[in-house]
Amino acid sequence: MDLASLIAQLAGGVLGGNAAGKGVPSLDLGGAGNTIAGALGGLGGGALLQALLPALTGAATGGGFDVGAILGQLVGGGAGGAIVTAIVGIVRNMMSGQRA
Fold it and tell me: Rounded to two decimals, what is the model's pTM?
């Protein structure tokens, strides 16, 4: 995995995490919480996408700069970031007795 892929995953995760937090206010973790959960989810989601679909992420082509692969990493990171932010928000609400 190269630096461009990691940056795309982090950026996608941060965007996805903040979008999920603002899109579902009951799961909002605040700006820093959404960003941190999104970034971690972005890295995990991007890595999972690369393992499952290497052709989409450019891993099968031997690396190099490929716009399609970077977009794939960005989308995978965004989805992962949104999912992790939502899960953390749900767990937080369950622990505090709130309903989602």
Answer: 0.83
Closest to 5 (Cα-Cα) out of 78, 71, 51:
71
In angstroms, the CA 24 to CA 93 distance is 13
Domain contains 15: no
Distance from the first to the final alpha carbon of the chain = 36
Q: Do the domain assignments include residue 77?
A: yes
25, part of any domain: no
**Phi and psi at residue 51, to the nearest 5°:** -70, -40
Residue 43 has phi, psi (to 5 degrees) of -65, -45
100 residues of the chain, pLDDT tens digit each: 688 889 999 999 999 999 999 999 999 999 999 999 999 999 998 888 878 877 665 655 555 567 888 888 899 899 999 999 999 999 999 998 866 5
What is the spatial distance between Cα 19 and Cα 1, in angstroms, rounded to a whole number?
26
